[in-house]
Write a structure and sequence with these properties.
The protein is built from 16 helices and 35 strands. It is α+β, with helices and mostly antiparallel strands. Among the domains are: 271 residues, Alkaline Phosphatase, subunit A (3-Layer(aba) Sandwich); 151 residues, no CATH class. The strands form nine sheets. The chain has an eight-stranded mixed β-sheet with strand order 3-35-26-2-25-10-11-24, sandwiched between helices.
Length: 696
């Protein structure tokens, strides 16, 4: 029996997870024929082949390590997934198959018939989890009993957390075949595998999909004196500071405190951790105290990682049972002045030294990494783009770049440890800021982007390029420890395109008579999919590329019969392909993908009915992703998030560079897993559909 757990409300309910088995297989003497070989795969997210070729031609000295590998082997575009979203693409890589096997279709999935009153329920495809019964493995509390002081005490059931990704994972075959395997942050691999059995050692640290302590992709806190009240913004919270005698008190809010009673119809109050600020006007510093740790910062300085305790307020047994979890944060003193203070606080990270729930296999490996290389960001997408894009901003562009530089130094320290320990076997190491920097700073290299600001012309046009040059340095460090017979592969999950204009699918459906709304005002539209009158609608969109028919018998309020399904789907698809941007006459939709026709028999309670392949420079609008609507079908994207790749997949291939010859003209992400196994002399796994692309 599987039970969906939305991480945003379920993280606290897993704080008591305790391992009931050793997740690392005992290594045995038998090894594959290629024993002693090293294979290094560097995942550089979003590395675009067009930019790679440009930099190889224009800056050969600074791209010499890439060129060295290319001269030894190959460089080719790498076919990506459809849709070319990171969770889907990396799942293709892991499984050696396509979405009909691993069943990850979008960042956002939907439950078409939830048990409550909602018309549908959204969840993160690689962030939320499901609960499965695993006798003797882990214990996660469910029900609770009244306890002292009006609190509640948990009971236990034998359960584990499992991701929604299905199908094989290539490392299972490696370990089974006797290959020691180490995985640093491959995306779409959270929660960590319960166990990987075989003759080889297995270690992995989770990547994209790993939540912060609030259960999402990262919620920052900005403490400020220049606002009148607390304010929730997308991806963060702004807290008003009231300075008295140069001092102020506030707090960090954690997940709901399930140990306190909740008012009917409301969530429990949050776990909290107090924070105190004291300004020294003479030194022009601020002293920040959290959970007994103090950092004294000048304006523009960052603290080190600080461990904070979130108080569950459970008397007597709270500490003994671990009901007051710890998290780690970093502060930045943005503005310090007379009666003025602005302090940014990073999202609360799962503490690698004391994880509230496992983020590695074996579970203690996350702490071992921190002990060797220092504490670190554990959230799956740590680059805090939400703080940059918030109003008011939690981080300016320059401050965001500081944050990314701090992150890159952490990753570099871990990378050096990984390389120093790499004597044989398989190592995967992931770099994600190449992708996030391209998302944010693409408009600075696109002179036609509507979001460009004249005052920023030329200021940030070097950022993406410098990230590629940094990757060449990281590759060079690896080559120093690799022997001639060892294998080096550099790959990315997709390339990039400019995101100039956003297309709102639900607005288009409403205008064309396929969807009815309860209201058309801005307040109505703010209700998102709750504003859709499903009983009068034929189709709807949630996710960045996904469209669904309101199918009777599948959707809670379905209106479309199975007999009418195919004709309606193609009617909508044909009209989308024919649509032209009213402001410039350009084609908005490049290609329509009919999922049931491409993958007959796929589970349509999970899979979308249609995937929309946008043309270059277009993408599904921000509001479409969460089932929202807007006043216009197409509008300029003036958000700092100005580059993207969620378009027709063949327009944004990834990059593949290897010191082995590639024998196919059209390699794809799905080909890499069986090809990696073949290089170790191992067979492809069941359900892998990819081809072998490297010469023997």
């Amino acid at each position: 029996m599987h039970k969906l757990i939305a991480i945003t409300t379920g993280l606290l309910a897993s704080l008591l997870l305790v391992s009931g088995c050793d997740s690392t297989a005992t290594a045995q003497p038998a090894k594959p024929a290629s024993a002693g070989m090293k294979m290094l795969v560097l995942g550089m997210d979003g590395l675009d082949p067009k930019l790679m070729r440009k930099l190889l031609a224009e800056k050969p000295e600074q791209m010499k390590n890439f060129q060295k590998i290319i001269d030894q082997g190959s460089f080719t575009p790498l076919g990506t997934s459809m849709p070319p979203q990171s969770p889907v693409a990396w799942s293709n890589f892991i499984s050696g198959a396509r979405p009909n096997t691993h069943m990850i279709w979008d960042f956002i999935h939907r439950d078409p018939a939830p048990d409550d009153d909602a018309p549908l329920r959204l969840y993160q495809s690689t962030g939320d989890v499901q609960e499965v019964e695993v006798p003797g493995y882990k214990k996660i509390f469910g029900e609770s009993l009244p306890w002292l002081g009006g609190t509640r005490l948990p009971l236990y059931s034998e359960s584990a957390l499992e991701s929604f990704r299905k199908g094989p994972a290539f490392w299972e075959q490696l370990v089974s075949g006797g290959v020691d395997t180490t995985i640093y942050r491959v995306p779409a691999n959270y929660p960590p595998p319960v166990s990987v059995e075989g003759r080889g050692r297995f270690r992995c640290l989770c990547g994209m999909g790993t939540p912060d302590m609030l259960g999402g992709y990262g919620t920052f806190t900005s403490f400020r004196t220049d606002i009148t009240r607390d304010k929730d913004v997308a991806g963060g919270v702004i807290r008003k500071l009231d300075l008295r005698d140069n001092a102020a008190e506030s707090y960090l809010a954690g997940p709901p405190n399930a140990f306190l009673p909740a008012e009917e119809g409301k969530a429990p109050p949050p776990l909290k951790s107090p924070v105190r600020f004291v300004i020294d006007p003479d030194e022009q510093t601020v002293k920040i105290t959290a959970s007994g740790t103090t950092a004294v910062l000048k304006e523009g300085e960052w603290s080190e990682w600080i461990t904070v305790t979130l108080d569950s307020e459970v008397p007597l047994l709270g500490t003994a049972l671990g009901l007051s979890p710890t998290a780690t944060v970093r502060f930045r003193a943005t503005t310090i002045g007379p009666n003025v203070l602005n302090v940014y606080c990073s999202p609360m990270q799962i503490d690698p030294l004391n994880p509230a729930q496992p983020i590695s296999t074996p579970s203690e490996w996350a702490a071992e990494i921190a002990e060797k290389a220092g504490s670190y960001y554990t959230t799956g997408i740590p680059e805090d783009t939400k703080a940059l894009r918030a109003n008011p901003q939690g981080l300016t562009e320059d401050e965001f770049l500081e944050m990314v530089q701090n992150l890159a130094r952490e990753r570099h320290a871990q990378y050096k440890v990984a390389l120093s320990e790499f004597t044989e076997g398989f190592l995967f190491f992931y770099f994600g800021h190449t992708d996030q920097l391209a998302h944010i700073f693409w408009r600075d290299i696109d002179p036609e982007h509507p979001g460009r600001l004249p005052e920023q012309d030329g200021k940030y046009d070097h950022v993406i390029e410098e990230a590629y040059l940094e990757m060449d340095e990281r590759l060079g460090e690896a080559l120093e420890i690799m022997d001639d017979d060892d294998i080096v592969i550099v790959m990315s999950d997709h390339g990039f395109s400019s995101f100039r204009r956003g297309f709102n699918v639900n607005t288009w459906l409403q205008i064309n008579g396929y969807q009815e709304w309860f209201g058309t005002t801005s307040r109505d539209r703010a209700l998102k999919y709750f504003n859709i009158d499903f009983a009068q609608s034929q189709a709807y969109a949630v996710g960045i590329n996904s469209l669904y028919i309101n199918l009777a018998g599948r959707e809670k309020n379905g209106t479309v019969s199975q007999a009418a399904y195919t004709a309606l789907l193609h009617e909508i698809g044909d009209k989308l392909l024919a649509y032209r941007d009213p402001d410039n006459g350009l084609q908005v939709i490049e290609k329509i993908y009919y999922v049931q026709e491409e993958f007959p028999g796929v589970d349509n309670t999970v899979a979308p009915d249609m995937l929309i392949g946008y043309a270059a420079n277009y993408r599904g609008s921000w509001s479409t992703a969460t089932g929202g609507m807007s006043s216009k079908v197409v509008s300029d994207n003036k958000d700092r998030w100005s580059g993207d790749h969620c378009i027709a997949h063949y327009l944004v291939p990834g990059t593949l560079i290897a010191n082995r010859k590639i024998t196919l003209d059209d390699p794809t992400l799905s080909d890499l897993a069986p090809s990696i196994l073949a290089l170790w002399g191992l067979d492809s796994m069941k359900d892998m559909t990819g081809r072998k692309i490297f010469a023997e």
